[in-house]
Specification:
The chain has helices at 4-20, 57-63, 136-148, 158-206, 213-218, 225-239, 244-261, 295-305, 336-348, 366-378, 465-482, 488-497, 534-550; strands at residues 73-79, 118-120, 321-327, 353-356, 382-386, 415-421, 443-446, 450-454, 458-462, 500-501, 506-508, 519-521, 530-531. With 551 residues, it is α/β, with parallel strands linked by helices. The protein folds into two domains: 4-33 and 136-261, no CATH class; 42-133 and 273-550, 3-Layer(aba) Sandwich (Rossmann fold), CATH 3.40.50. Helix 1 (4-20) crosses helix 4 (158-206), helix 4 (158-206) packs across helix 6 and helix 11 runs parallel beside helix 13.
Length: 551
């Protein structure tokens, strides 16, 4: 998710706010910026027909898929949970037919009791669930302190020296992030106190919470110095696009980072009750696939599979699809053991495509995940991964999980990293937060101002490569559904070769500041230099399928 707007807003307004000398109340609480979008369905639109850089899903259904028999495809969504009861996901959730719901017995003998719709690897046997988690660097920092605090590097050799250097790198990263988190926490507290106090005064003036920028400008403060300051402060932030409700989410995001992600005294793993650093092949977790925070996973699932025919909500990309829900991603950094087990569970239970919309900076048990990816490769499973929201070049920035083993070789062929794109074929085509990479990012797909499902039969708008990945997973599922004989490597090849390519288009490089705004060729930001296109992919898939039949 993209939080750049509120980071810049808070830091930019803070000094002027202090000079206004506004009073304070208690602060509230975190998540990010969303951009209200003119086209709720824009990602499914067509570049020629609609002049929008969508993926041409609607055109494909209208012109290529009418009357075509489609086969059911299972897509595993490994995430923080999914609202399986959402109105727009009815009939779209995978059901384990070998399991009798609620009888407390492992009917299909797969090691998981009552796994009717999937499994939760971050829950306990008592039904409790992990919601927030620490960052991986926090866990590694604690390990460094425990094992190497006071130890001189010169006294070490071999495996101990290698571990020392790895943990020291994590320690440096932790101290940098934790200190920044403390500063952000202090900044947001000051800003928040000023805003909520000012907000309460304006609410009392207009007797409503949904006051507008025009309302603020209409205030006549007279000689009331406090009201003069409040009007000036609110006018300044609302002029810059401030949104009251989104600020609540951002505020909460900052608080969560300080209180959970970088808090060395916080350890929720006791809820699960296992040792996350040991691969013991023992089942753990529970069958609560909704969990305590299904917002992100529900949004992802809707992009892939929301009902296209019920005239409500949104239109998912793949019609004949079932979402296997696997909960393994907390609010914080995921554990490698959970990710590995989630992939293995998905593969063993029939998933043909797996969506991974998460990532982190360190992966101490990477071998667990690597082995799981090898297993997925052996079963012809396609894995789609979000490139990340750091505005960084993943050719040089290591992010996990990834498709490279410790020797630098590919683990599997059927892996794709996806960057985030926006609506127009112009300088703003790549999302300003999106990671990119000429060697490591396959292509871009819509990931800015995306409208999708949210828990409780709600809908909303969010940004992130987290949502570009399910665009691609949905497209892959649609190809597999229309042409079931095609294998994972063929589907990947089709998706890569069918993108709308803009190799010479000059765009803003994602990692540039608003002042720099240096332009680069779009073709340098990914392997294909293109944007996902479902229509082209299905046309090409038809040709692949014909060639396969003629062999």
């Amino acid at each position: 998710m993209n939080f750049k707007y509120y980071f810049s807003l808070v830091s930019g307004i803070l000094l002027s706010m202090i000079s206004l000398n506004i009073g304070a109340q208690t602060s509230v609480a975190a998540d990010g910026k969303t951009t209200i979008n003119k086209y709720d369905n824009w990602h499914n639109l067509d570049s020629k027909v609609n002049k929008i850089q969508g993926i041409s899903t609607d055109e494909a259904y209208e012109k290529l898929l009418k009357g075509k028999t489609m086969k059911r495809v299972i897509v595993a969504v490994i995430d923080g949970g999914v609202d399986i009861n959402h109105e727009d996901l009815k009939g779209k959730i995978w059901v384990n037919e070998g399991e009798i719901p609620g009888n407390g017995i492992d009917d299909d003998h797969n090691g998981y009791i009552d796994d009717v719709n999937g499994w939760n690897f971050i829950g306990g046997k008592d039904g409790k669930n992990v919601k927030e988690e620490t960052a991986e660097i926090t866990r590694l920092y604690l390990k460094f302190i425990e094992k190497f605090d006071g130890v001189k590097e010169s006294s070490l050799s071999g495996a101990d020296l290698a571990e020392y250097r790895y943990l020291e790198k994590a320690k440096e990263k932790y101290l940098e992030k934790a200190n920044k988190s403390k500063r952000d926490f202090a900044d947001i507290a000051a800003f928040s106190n000023a805003f909520w106090f000012s907000d309460s005064v304006v609410i009392s003036i207009f007797n409503k919470t949904d006051y507008t920028f025009a309302d603020i400008k209409s205030i006549n403060p007279g000689n009331d110095k406090r009201l003069i300051s409040i009007k000036a402060f609110l006018s300044e932030i609302y002029k810059k696009g401030f949104d009251r409700n989104q600020f609540k989410k951002y505020n909460d995001y900052i608080n969560i980072k300080a209180n959970y992600h970088y808090n060395t005294d916080f350890n929720p793993r006791t809820i699960v009750g296992d040792n996350p650093e040991i691969w013991d092949n023992q089942p753990y977790g529970n069958n609560d696939v909704i969990g305590s925070s299904p917002d992100h996973g529900t949004f992802v699932a809707g992009i892939i599979a929301a009902n296209r025919h019920n005239d409500i909500g949104i239109k998912g990309i793949a019609d004949s699809v079932k979402i296997m829900v696997i909960r393994a991603i907390p609010d914080g950094d995921e554990r490698d053991k959970d990710v590995a087990n989630a992939i293995i569970y998905a593969v063993k239970n029939g998933a043909q495509i797996i969506n991974l919309s998460f990532g982190k900076d360190f992966s101490p048990q990477k071998n667990f995940v690597d082995d799981a990816l090898k297993f997925a490769a052996s079963k012809d499973v396609l894995i789609i991964h979000a490139a990340g929201n750091d505005s960084e070049n993943t050719d040089t920035l290591e992010r996990f999980p990834n498709n490279t083993d410790k020797t630098g070789n590919k683990i599997m062929e059927n892996w794709m990293n996806i960057g985030a794109s926006f609506q127009k074929k112009n300088k703003t085509l790549p999302g300003d937060f999106s990671n990119y990479g000429k060697k490591t990012v396959a292509f871009f797909a819509p990931g800015v101002s995306i409208y999708s499902t949210q828990p409780g039969n709600k809908y909303g708008v969010m940004d992130g490569t987290s949502f570009s990945a399910p665009m691609t997973a949905g497209a892959a599922a649609l190809i597999k559904s229309a042409y079931p004989a095609l294998n994972a490597s063929q589907i990947k090849e089709i998706l890569m070769n069918s993108t709308l390519k803009y190799p010479r288009l000059k765009v803003y490089q994602p990692n540039q500041t608003s002042k720099e705004k240096n332009k680069v060729r779009f073709g340098t930001l990914s392997i294909t230099g293109g944007v996902l296109n479902v229509y082209n992919a299905l046309e090409l898939a038809g040709k692949y399928n014909t060639m396969q039949i003629l062999k």
